[in-house]
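hey so i finally got around to running the thing on that chain from the lab meeting. sorry it took forever, my laptop kept dying and i had to restart like 3 times. anyway pasting the input first so we r on the same page abt which one it is
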Amino acid sequence: MLTVVLGALAFFAVTAGVMVAGRHLESRPSNDQRRAADRLRALADGPGAGDGDPRRGFRDTVARLGSRLVPRNGARAAALASRLALAGYRDPSVVLYYTAFQLAAVIALAGAAGGTSAALDTGWKRAAMWAPVGGAVGLIAPTFLLTSRVNKRQRAIRNALPDALDIMVLSVEGGASLNAALNWAAEEIQTVHPVLGAELVVVQREVQLGLSTGEAFRAFADRCGIEEARDLAAALLQTEKYGASVGKALRAYADSARQERQVWAEEVAQKASVKIVFPMLLCIFPAIFIVLLGPAAMQMSKIFAR
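ok and heres what got predicted. didnt touch it at all, straight out
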């Protein structure tokens, strides 16, 4: 047993070393990039922030590890940062944390798969086969989790946007300005739909900093990545460009957004009848057959046994 455990640990160490070395050589950032990242983190934290805090030390360790693994290609790093921003993670160090988490998942699952296979005495060939499988799962799993987070966030914003537009339409048609309507919508929608409420607060602050409402909503569309927000931003930019009525544009788009949400709800309801077929065939019908036909089958078996 001791030999198996030592072999599993050795296998884990070799696998981790190869993966770390390969990723380090593939996407090693330059010294200037690392110094700039360290300087930005120091400026963001402030002087003396987090001294003696173990969580601060853990974050620094993870960020330092991620800085060595972050893609050196600027386009790839920017694409990853944009993807994380769609999920709601906009911290400057989130790319470093994500890459460190991905590496940790690869090493942990590869070592767990290889070590478990070796501990079960299935042979070193099977252990060597299962370790890359675990590493592949660890490499892909964070991507699936990130995609799920993005889809969930986009769905929440898409469902809440018509309600926020209705509040803005009522405010504008009641005589308030567009900025006041945006402020009122952000305050009212915060408790019911916190994701959209937080985004509207960002839009409001961008307007206060000097951006027009259309430009602020265009930045909001880039942050959330849904077509409804892009259409709303385009409508607001058109009204600002040609001097059209903002109230009429918001009313037309709010009606369109509510109709689209109703069509989406009807589509989901129609798909439910198809999706429920498989649970019925696998779970409900067998239980019904056992309850209804079980006594008859037992009686028939007794009759034939005679």
